Structure formats: structure tokens, C-alpha cells
Amino acid sequence: MVLKLHGVSFSTCTRTVAVVAKELNVPYELVNVDFAKGEHKSPAFTAVQPFGQVPYIDDDGFKLFESRAIARYLAKKYAGQGTKLIPTDPKEEAIFEQGVSIESSNFYPSAIGFGIEKVFKPMRGLTPDEARAEEHLKTLASKLDAYDVLLGKQKYVGGNEITLADLFHLSYGQLLVQAGQADLFESRPNVARWWKEISTRPSWLAVKDAA
Amino acid sequence: MVLKLYGYPTSTCTLRVAVTLKEKNVPFEFIPVDLVGGQHKTPAFTANQPFGQVPYIVEDDGFQMYESRAIARYIAAKYAGVGEQLIPKDLRESAIFEQGASIELTDYEPFVSGLAWENKFTQMYGGTKDEKRAESLLATWRSKLDAYDKILGQQKYIGGNKITLADLFHLPYGSVLLGIGIDEFSSRPNVARWWNDITSRPSWQAIKDGL
């Protein structure tokens, strides 16, 4: 039975799972969750995902949520095919974990914070909190300065090969670009090189507008 | 020569690493970093941690890394044969562990760290509490913990039926909030049971008041 990805085609987290599935050559079926109708808050949905969030997967009856967990599960299950996304050497794996943690602690919070103010709120007809958006932008700028140092010493965020750590940046990075902040990447030489490489991978091009 | 842990005695992230080292009985040398004096922003420090954060570790052979959750994962993998299996090996069990680890990161950390900042740390650094933000964080965190209570009614720990890193990662901030009178655990029966369980572990008791 083909992997079922329950989510929303343009959702950041749903596309994170989709790009990983593409890298691994794992086919999947996107099962749309109807946000407009509040499906994600329905008892049937929250029985599977108690936080009422997308996505979750149904792998032949095995259900899992949290996009980064799903990504790791797929990378582990399909380790023998597609791109190797989690290193097996202990020290390389440690640097990979460092990279994954860098994304979730030093990139994601301000990237999503900015995206909420300047992309999602306007989409819903709400007024952005400009002060908060500015704060997030300032944080991102200083974080990406550190990224530029890191990416001057190693090719990718998780080491010298592409890993999940890089792929986890794509959806939120694209949000920033959508919000007119491409310069965050482009003005920093090592970050620019890295962002260009990962955001032009066929796996991402296949899903960046729709999972 | 033992593992060197560079950090701050009561820093949440430093304690996250310390509790893992204690679980695995790994001897270590704690080297305090002068955060108040800005040591973490000096070039000598940022050469080791480009984001200017604590902690980081340096091993005997010169291997170094940062990001507390990554360090914990590295230690858990390196000493997998000692004490509790803090990261399951079985594919599905490891997936549920990763789900729990991701829950901690996205449904707990942003709220507890925000609440700790507004209610405690901002004043320590001469700032003022943002009442609206604190209120909003508390409201969201409460709804997240309602979901935790559901999950912990179905499985013993946040990452499955055995203790894992996912549980340990919750300890530092949960304790900070309890220390300033914010107790959202006691009123939720399954959360309360789980919290009592994980806080009573000798590894946490040994270091909970600081290094």
C-alpha cells in the first residue's frame, strides 16, 4: 500500500515530508486535510494527531506525526535507496545531529515567526505585528552570519554531504523568499552557495509549490 | 582525560547535556563560561560555537560539537550499551521516539522558554515583562499540555513506553517554571504522573540545582 501523507499541499511541514520522500524515491499519496472545514480539529483527526496539526503519515497502518520525525523514519526505513540523508559513521552522525538542531533552534523559530507575521497573517486578512517581524528579521540576520561562518568550513549544515538537516530548511527558507527576504541568503557568500544548491534540487523543485 | 563540558552551571541547555551524561555514567569535567561577562561572544568562544551559545563539548581526541540535544544524542549513541536505551533501535520504536523528540521541540520548548524569559530572565537582564506575550504563551502552552495528557494516557513516556531522551529534554525548562510558581503539570493526571517519574530519576536529582 502506498504511503499516505495526510496534509495540505502548500503547508510548510507537509512539503518537508514530501521533499524527503522525493529524495528517497518513496512514492506517496497526498490525502488533503480540509482546514476550511476545521477537519484538523475534528475528533477523528485529533485521535491521530492530538495537537490538531498537519501532516501525519499512515504507512500501512503505522501512523506517525511531526514532519521531522516522519522524515527521519523514512530516511531510516529507506536507507538503501535514493540519497543517503542520515550518516552512519558516529562522528559524522553527531555533526548531522548538530546541524538538525541548528535548524530547529537557530533558524526555524525566527523564520516561522517572520513568516507568520508577513505571509500567513496577510493571507488571512490579519494585520502583521511589524515590531515582532522586525525582531525576527534581526535575529535571522545574526543567525545567518553564524551560518556563513559554518558553511565556510563545511559544505552543508550537517557536514560535507547533503542530509535531512539541509532539507529541513527548505520550506521555511522559501517562506522568507516569498516574503521578499531572499537577500538574507544572497548577501552572505557561503549561505548563498548553499541555499542555491539545496533549493534547486529536483526533489524540491518537484514539491515546492505543492506537496 | 575526560570529556569537557563548557557551559553555565544552571543553564537549561547545559543541564540537558549533564543529565544525559549522568544517565550514562560518563565522567566529565564542567568548565564554566562567563556569560555575565560576555565570554560567549568573544572570538575565542565563537571559534568553537559560531552562534555564541552554551554548551559545547570537547572530547579526549579533540572532537567537538555543540547543540545540547545533538550532544545528548551523540552520548546516547556512543554509550548505547550503558544504562537505559535512551534512543530505541527498532524502526517503529525509534519513529515514536523521534515523534516525542519533535513534540518537545515544537510543542513545548517555544512556550516554556518564552514563559521563562518573560517571567524570570528578562528581569534578570534589566528588561520588563511583556504581559500580553506571557499570557498568550501560557494559553497556548495549556492547550499543548492538554494534548500531552492524552498522549501520556496512551503511552507511558513522551517517546513511547520506555524512557528516552525525549523525556529528559523536558526537564530543565519544566523545572525553571516550577521554580517560579508556574505549575501546569499537577492538574493534568497523566502529565503529573509522567513528570513525577522523570524528575525522580537519580540522574536528574544529581544535577537539578546546577553544576
Automatic annotation (TrEMBL), chain A:
Task: Provide the protein name.
Answer: glutathione transferase
InterPro entries recorded for this chain? Glutathione-S-Trfase_C-like, Glutathione-S-Trfase_C_sf, Glutathione_S-Trfase, Glutathione_S-Trfase_N, GST_C, GST_Phi_C, Thioredoxin-like_sf
What top-tier enzyme class does this entry carry?
transferase
Domain named GST C-terminal is located at: 89-211
Provenance organism: Coniophora puteana (strain RWD-64-598) (Brown rot fungus)
Q: Sorted alphabetically, which PANTHER family does this protein's record hold? A: GLUTATHIONE S-TRANSFERASE RHO
Reaction(s) catalysed by this chain, per the record, are: RX + glutathione = an S-substituted glutathione + a halide anion + H(+)
Q: Which family does it belong to?
A: Belongs to the GST superfamily. Phi family.
Q: Which GO terms describe its molecular function?
A: glutathione binding; glutathione transferase activity
Q: Where is the GST N-terminal domain positioned along the sequence?
A: 1-82
Q: What's an example GO BP annotation here?
A: glutathione metabolic process
Query: Which is an annotated Pfam family here?
Result: GST_C
CDD domains the record matches: GST_C_Phi (cd03187), GST_N_Phi (cd03053)
TrEMBL record, chain B:
**Alphabetically ordered keywords of this record:** Transferase
Question: Can you provide one Gene Ontology molecular function annotated for this UniProt record?
Answer: glutathione binding
What SUPFAM superfamilies does the database record attribute to this sequence?
GST C-terminal domain-like (SSF47616), Thioredoxin-like (SSF52833)
The keyword Endoplasmic reticulum appears for this protein = no
Q: One of this protein's Pfam families, by short name? A: GST_N
Top EC class of this enzyme: transferase
Q: Where is the GST N-terminal domain?
A: 1-83
Q: Output a single Gene Ontology CC term carried by this record.
A: cytoplasm
Q: What is its EC number?
A: 2.5.1.18
Would the keyword Oxidoreductase turn up in this protein's UniProt record? Answer: no
Please list the GO biological process terms of this entry. glutathione metabolic process
Q: Describe the reaction catalysed, as an equation.
A: RX + glutathione = an S-substituted glutathione + a halide anion + H(+)
Q: Which residues form the GST C-terminal domain?
A: 90-211
Stated family:
Belongs to the GST superfamily.
PANTHER family to which the protein is assigned, alphabetical: GLUTATHIONE S-TRANSFERASE RHO (PTHR43900)
What is the protein's given name?
glutathione transferase
